[in-house]
Amino acid sequence: MTTPKVFNDPIHGTVELHPLLVKIIDTPQFQRLRYLKQLGGVYFVYPGASHNRFEHSIGVAHLAGELVNALRTSQLDLNIDDRDVLCVQIAGLCHDLGHGPFSHSFEKFIHKARPEKKDWKHEKASLDMFDYLVDVNELKLVMKQHGLVLPEDLIFIKELIVGLPDTEEAGDQKWPYEGRPEDKSFLYEIVANKRNGIDVDKFDYLARDAHHLGIQTNFNYRRFIKFARVCEEKQKDGQKLKDRLKQICTRDKEVNNLYELYHLRYNLHKNACHHSVNNIIESMITKAFLKADEHIQIQGSGGKMFTLSTAIDDPEAYTKLTDHVYERILNSSDLTYASGGPSASEGPSASGGPSASEGPSASGGPSASEGPSASGGPSASEGPSASGGPSASEGPSASGGPSASEGPSASGGPSARECRSMAEAKDILKKIVARQHPRFLGERTLTENKAMITELEKMKSEDKEEMQRRQDDKLKAKDSEVHEEDLAGCKYCKRTAEPEDSEVDKLKRRWEKELADCQKDELKAEDFEVDIVELNYGMEIKNPIDEMRFYNKRKPDKAIELPKHQKSVFHPTIFSEKLIRVYYKKTDKTSVNKAFKHMELWWENQRSNPQDTEEDRSPGGNIQNNE
């Protein structure tokens, strides 16, 4: 293929992609993104949140091309060439290859299931998946045919996905990357901008998420691209590396547009990603994954079997891991799952998911008859066969795990009665389907309660130290606590133990006990659930726009900090808040009303904490109740 391919996108309109990008799209590793919801569990709250990482990745590739070409056209002295443009677009296309089921929730699951992987993030998995995609689909020759220089450009693409490291913390004053020299440092800010977070990934997901959620936006990414220029700050002796690099700047008059970007990000996080119901649902999904972990057997390279948490170690197994794992747990018998997964004939159809013959339409992908031709992918009847993937008729192996033939034999597994942890995982997911999740009682900001904030930060610090010491085998050390009579034949249950509580988890358990003990009645601590939510502008307590550099009309090539006289008094001055939320697991009205009274009394007890100031004890407080 030598001509670009045209896609019709609901956000960006007509999108034209280079033939090499289309070649990457038509691989099983990229097609997998069709079956990963962009917003994870938010789909259980917002019916419109059915979009997937597939279309988001295409959108990022498009915007990456728009921004780099705008810079190339307006500033010829930057020496941006065709290789640079193509590499930046490929990085945008492949930046999310490493996401797991239910996106960011999967990272939380991995951190609990495998504490030694505390630093694992989807960006690292994206690099592994990109390497695997290139190798297994033999794309190196195709890349060379389109003008890329290997391995230099492969290294550059992966560096772009990660973004520039924080050289200030490392104390390193040398250029850290191999893909491009220091004078092209601005290219590293297009897909993953670690300087201030203003990049095309954010442009696309903010516009796309808001569109599907029905949330109005005021940020205009097209204006940012229009006014973008590469500038340098005035050179000084002893200047930090990040301050001497060329960087992407915008006009000083565009500062309000940037504040709109971060205000929109905050609104989406508060009202969708951290919606009170979404948070509890994703917490339940994480618990179900922890219980089902060892029962999900996925065949990887060399025929080796991997679990839900170990699939991240093998790209072939990880390619088969999508949101469909939710339906795998929910809809097949315990016997089937202890034996390695549903057969192709079972499929996840019981839950409204597709049968093997229907294709994965329930997950947001096309039905077999429709095909994804509108988006440029192969039709369902064709399948991703051009790249070695299975056709739709081969069952759910491409989108969620192995067929029955891939796992251990059914005759060697336990009976349904014997598999307790799998039954518990299914029961959790059934409660989500029936909307029997814990009831949200109310929330309160912790900003004013200095004692609670201090205690929380102390626990978080202790968690970091503990995670350094904890070994993976500690997760398996509690076998003696498992009742063998309940697990008669299930080898997976016998290996599975509850992960240890972190220090923050222990603090939550203490607060839950305080909630139950507020009044003398029958309410129990285990029926309460406390959640801590942190919202910010992406840089904890910092203002990311302080890290942005601007230029003015008279000096368009000089990067400057925004002058004080141009900073509006209406701009925010606080950029982070912590919320504490209280849920109650019983759903009957009488119990919920009692729990609500406990919560109100507990709030009052916290307000009167002797460590708080007079202002903290003032009447009213910042409480939002779910009445």
Label this structure with key terms.
alpha+beta, 39% helix, 3-stranded mixed β-sheet, disordered C terminus, 627 residues
Unreliable stretches covering 5 or more consecutive residues: 335-418, 471-488, 610-627
The overall strand count is: 11
Strand ordering within the main sheet = 8-10-7-11
* Shape, per Cα inertia axes: globular
What class, by secondary structure content? alpha+beta
Percent helix, as a range, is 25-40%
Distance between the termini: 60 Å
- Average the pLDDT over all residues and give the rounded result: 80
Number of helices: 23
Percentage of β-strand residues = 5-15%
Describe this structure in words.
The model is unreliable at 335-418, 471-488 and 610-627 (pLDDT under 50). The chain contains 23 helices and eleven strands. The longest helix has 22 residues, at 53-74. The protein has a four-stranded antiparallel β-sheet, sandwiched between helices. A three-stranded mixed β-sheet has the order 3-4-9, with no helix packed on it. The chain has helices spanning 19-25, 28-31, 53-74, 82-94, 104-113, 122-136, 140-145, 152-162, 167-170, 200-213, 221-227, 241-244, 255-273, 276-292, 315-319, 325-331, 334-338, 397-400, 420-433, 450-469, 491-495, 503-516, 589-607; strands at 5-9, 13-17, 229-231, 247-251, 298-299, 305-306, 439-445, 528-536, 550-551, 576-584, 623-625. Helix 16 (325-331) crosses helix 19 (420-433). The protein has 627 residues and is an alpha+beta fold.
